[in-house]
Amino acid sequence: MSPTDAIYHYNNNALSYLNIGAAMGDEMIRALNDMAFCYEDCDAQIAPGIVSIGNRVWNDYNMDGIQDSNEPGIPGVSLVIWSDSDGDNIPDWQGFGGVQVTDSDGYYNFTSLEPGNYTVFVWSVDNWGPGEPLEGFHSTNAFVSNANNDVDFDNNGFGNPFTDIMAGVVTLTLDQEPLDDGDSYNCYFNYDASGNNTINFGFFNLDVVAGGPSCQILELPLGWSTFSTYMLPYNTDINVVLSPIYDHVVIVKDYSGNAYLPEFLFNGIGAIDVGQGYHIKTTADVSVEICGTYLFPENHSISLTSGWNLIGYLRLEPAEIAAVLADVTQTNNLIIAKDYMGNAYLPEWNFNSVADMEPGRGYQLKIVLDDVLYFLSNSENY
Description:
The protein has helices at about 5-35, 240, 320-325, 325-330, and strands spanning about 50-55, 55-60, 80-85, 95-100, 110-115, 115-120, 140, 165, 170, 195, 200-205, 215-220, 225, 230-235, 250-255, 260, 265, 280, 285-295, 300-305, 305-310, 320, 335-340, 345, 350, 355, 365, 370-375. It is an alpha+beta fold. The protein has three domains: about 1-40; about 45-210, Immunoglobulins (Immunoglobulin-like, Sandwich), CATH 2.60.40; about 215-375, no CATH class. Strands 3, 4, 6, 8 and 9 form a five-stranded antiparallel beta sheet that branches. Strand 24 (about 345) and strand 25 form a beta hairpin. The protein is elongated. The chain starts with a helix and ends in a 9-residue tail after the last strand.
């Protein structure tokens, strides 16, 4: 046999072996798929010998303790599980069973557990600090203490912020757990009947609620004016908020006289504050869009200090200034209120040239004693 023939036969045999190997691999893959996805030869399911527990940590926008369809899960929340072997509703001191972190939709699951009594809680580690998933959140209302009732979509957690938010003890039993509650499917093992996915934790953050606009456009005239916003910007630093009109801003001042001077790269204000107004001087008529989270007015009262204040207006629609400030004037605490044009409201003299408070504007108030201003919701009328 010539060298050329030898090379030919070698390559041909190698190709045959590769084809045989590929065919065998395809058969193995089909066999594994048949086992995993139950295409054939799948007998009745049996109990897996282990149990699981889970479900969701969610943002309870309306604070009613019930998961609504528009309320999202909270990702990245750390939870722990603890056993209660003697059934006294007190976690065993050596009963720690591990940590799970909620997924992108707020779901968690503790698997491969022995049947028995367990409690799950959102613990104080990696949850409440700056930049962590529950910063600014509180455990929601309507706490259901009986977490063992197999009811989904309710709130089973209770506790104070920065502490462990604990659910009641749940008894996990083989083949006795709620069905069709999200357990993984397997044609050989009945994980559904051995898993309880009804233990939920609701939280709310008054700065992160449903509904309302996602942006607000402020119209600023040439020269001096005032502004405020009913949005919590994604970045609250005033130089970021006003960056679209940077070239037209001469100066911005808060009620204390702190200034932002973009020409000199000086920012004595820092971040804008919820409910506060600001003086601004611009070199042209300009508009700026502020996007972020809407601040519902009924959830954001404004603290007033004795003397001069510069406040914002958080409602979506204008309202008469006398009505909005009625609680302050009823106690004879308001001396004067002014808009940026100098129009005044003097309750002692029953004089009002301001007329309505408007979204996007700031208003100067001089009061006698410290006070608090509360807004009605957008659904209510003054």
